[in-house]
Amino acid sequence: HLYASMGYDPLTDLQPVTLTHQMPNVLLVNPNTPYKSVADVVAAAKAKPGSLAYGSAGNGNTMHLAGELFQSRSEARLMHVPYKGGAPALNDVMGGQIPMMFNNLPAVVPLHNAGKVRVLALAAAKRSPLLPDVPTMAEAGLQKADSVVWNGILMRKGTPAGVIAYMNREMRAVLESAEFRAPLEAQGFEVLSSTPKEFETVLREDYAQMGELIKLNHIKIE
To answer: pLDDT below 50 — which residues of the chain?
Structure first.
């Protein structure tokens, strides 16, 4: 959806094996801003459309798309400031150069706990056990604004079914083990495992939803 040509089609050239993990994007602000809630951000953005800046890891990144989805659901206009990576954007939020951004949960949990940023909401269906007092977007009053980044393993289309089944079985055994899960869950990742069919359903649903969002907002990467 973003590139004129990638050289392959993820739906026809790749075969899902299993999802591995996911993490929600979160809305965070510099703690010195007056924004204490999603409603505060929306009110400020609507008072001066296009002037309230939010950073991201770059044009078309999931952090950027989370911001576009936020604007679509809230009907508030923000100013996107793309960086060359999430870390420099996050540094500028902490330094006060920009007031806020959307970022992955694991990157911000220790900063929120240290008071270096303030996480206002998780763009996910449920709260995180690491930040139990932080509401979801829906709880904060913004419906259908979830932005969850998932990862998974895929293989070349045409890989023999027996190989796909073997890889799925062996990978799920690792993903479902407590020893593997514990350190990732402590950082804010949700460890997943799935059948190839379940993964394909997620892939196709997100392909359609992200395609609609990208097309609506005329986002391109050259």
So the answer is: none
